[in-house]
Every structure is written in structure tokens, then in C-alpha cells.
Write a structure and sequence with these properties.
alpha/beta, 7 strands, 303 residues, seven-stranded mixed beta sheet
């Protein structure tokens, strides 16, 4: 079910409760400056992809991760999108990127994303999903809600996104053969559909006025560099990919003491949002310049 919240007794690694668009913090504040939507990648998870701790750790602090940090530091709504993207058929299912993008766009429309400026923070295949979603929105621009999502998108953060695919996809298939899902097939290096999507984004990003921020990993995962610098580079004018001393998974899991990615993304989001002075007066009695205190709480309380 779209937007479904985890049950009171659930753990954040229960896949059945972590699909669709979900509220994390600040999403019900009517005077918020914008929305930030996190989108995980292949074999990812709407919560765990972004968390610096393992849910099985004894000192696990479920709500202490960079999604809630951003929600407390910025006047925005923080969302996360979960979807089925298993590597192997034995571990689950995965829809083709085109279908997943349509599903994602429908979720964004249903929750009113597009009424305010939007920034997407993506990891790995999640970046491809966002680009494909924007492509779908542009193809149906006569639809007002789809056009709103497209026009409200102010920026995208790509964390180790394989814009031209990854050789690891071929490597995984060679080990498992027919057991790989459609997502792995679509991520093969230099796959035609990825080249086409990459070209579309490069040709349209300036017209759409979408700011782009890129980070890439420098450490191998299990001895393999999943996304190299070349594939992580979207080839956009004046966009310099930033190297991070992390592997493919940890680049999306900044720890409290690791400020490189967190501060960079935070500053990027601020640059994508309109200044409070440029916003029209609010109809409600709360001043736009008034500080609205927010505490890190369980996201279940916000839904």
C-alpha cells in the first residue's frame, strides 16, 4: 500500500512495511519550504540504506540517522521511497525501470509532491529511477499533477549512481545466470536504454533548471568497485563529481562524525530552496521567519 507506515511492532527491515512513499519528518508542516525525497537503489531499503547502524546492533537508534538530522536542521519535509529491487529472483522481485518510474510518479502525485520545491537524494539505481520518473512526467506534461512534479524538481543528489551502468551487473549475471532480476539486466554497462536515458537527462537538465550534485565511491565492496568515477559522472556542464572515501553501501550511510556527505547535501538542499524573503506571505498565523521547533520523533507519530 502506498504511503503505508510501519506497524507499531515492526522493525525497519521488514520489507512488507517499507514500500511506497513514507513520511519521516516535517511532512505535515504546511509552511515548510520544500520536500526532500530519498530513493534507494538495487537491493536497497527505504530505511536501512540510509542508516549508519545495523538494525541488529544492541545500541541501534532507529531514528538517529541523517534523514532525521536534515529534518531537524532544515525547514523541509523528509520522505523516503521504498520499492522492490532484488538482485536475485530467489530474494524477491523487481519491476522494469519504466514500470517502477510510473509507480513512483503516481506515488508522488498522490501525496501532493510538486506543490513545493523538491530535491531528490538518490543512491545507486535510485538515481536512474528518478531520471526515468522525470522523463515519464515530461512525456505526460499535459497532466497537471505530473507537470507539477517535473517543474517543482529543483535538484538531484546522485550517490554512486551508475549513469552508464556497471560491469558488476554482468559479473553478477555470470555467477548466477538466469536467476538475476530484470533490474540487474538493465544495469549492465553501456546498456542502450541507460545511454538513452543519460543523453535525455543531459539534454534537458538545463532547460528544466535542475541542479545536480554528484558523489562517487573510491573503496571497493567485497573487492569490487561497484560504480567507478566514469559511470558515476553524468557529464553535465559545471558539475564536478566528488570522491568520497567510502564503499558503495557506506557512501549513503554517513555516521554522526562523518560530515563530508551530510554537510554537502545539506548545503545543496539549501541552495535549491527559495529564500524565505522571496516567499509570499503565509495565510496561517505562523510567520515564515519564525523558528518552528521540531524534535526527532518516531515517524509513526507523524503519519
Amino acid at each position: 500500500m502506498f504511503g503505508r507506515k510501519p506497524s507499531a511492532n515492526s522493525q525497519p527491515n521488514e520489507e512488507s512495511n517499507m514500500t511506497g512513499l513514507m513520511k519521516i519528518l516535517g511532512c505535515d508542516n504546511p509552511s515548510r519550504q520544500g520536500d526532500v525525497v530519498f530513493v534507494h537503489g538495487l537491493a536497497g531499503h527505504a530505511w536501512n540504506t540510509w542508516h549508519w547502524q545495523n538494525p541488529k546492533d544492541r545500541d541501534y537508534q532507529k531514528d538517529n540517522f541523517w534523514l532525521t538530522w536534515l529534518g531537524n536542521d532544515l525547514d523541509v519535509g523528509i520522505w523516503t521511497f521504498g520499492y522492490s529491487a532484488a538482485r536475485l529472483r530467489a530474494n524477491g522481485s523487481a519491476m522494469p525501470l519504466f514500470d517502477q518510474a510510473s509507480n513512483f510518479l503516481d506515488d508522488l502525485e498522490n501525496f501532493g509532491i510538486g506543490e513545493r520545491p523538491v530535491v531528490f537524494v538518490t543512491h545507486s539505481m535510485g538515481g536512474l529511477l528518478v531520471k526515468k520518473m522525470l522523463n515519464a512526467a515530461k512525456n505526460f506534461s499535459r497532466n497537471e499533477s505530473k507537470e507539477a512534479v517535473l517543474k517543482s524538481t529543483q535538484g538531484i543528489v546522485f550517490l554512486s549512481t551508475p549513469h552508464l551502468g556497471s560491469d558488476v551487473a554482468q559479473w553478477v549475471q555470470s555467477l548466477t545466470g538466469f536467476l538475476t532480476t530484470v533490474s540487474v539486466e538493465e544495469l549492465k554497462a553501456h546498456a542502450p536504454q541507460l545511454r538513452e536515458l543519460d543523453e535525455w537527462y543531459r539534454q534537458n537538465v538545463e532547460e528544466l533548471r535542475i541542479k545536480t550534485k554528484v558523489y562517487y565511491e573510491t573503496k571497493p565492496t567485497s573487492g569490487v568497485l561497484i560504480v567507478n568515477e566514469s559511470s558515476a559522472n553524468p557529464g553535465i556542464k559545471d558539475v564536478k563529481p566528488i570522491a568520497v572515501e567510502a564503499d558503495h553501501d557506506s557512501i549513503a550511510k554517513p555516521k554522526p562524525e562523518d560530515t563530508k556527505v551530510y554537510l554537502g547535501v545539506k548545503q545543496f538542499i539549501k541552495q535549491c530552496l527559495p529564500s524565505q524573503k522571496s516567499l509570499p506571505p503565509a495565510d496561517n498565523p505562523i510567520s515564515l521567519t519564525q523558528t518552528i521547533p521540531e524534535k526527532t520523533v518516531n515517524p509513526q507519530q507523524l503519519l
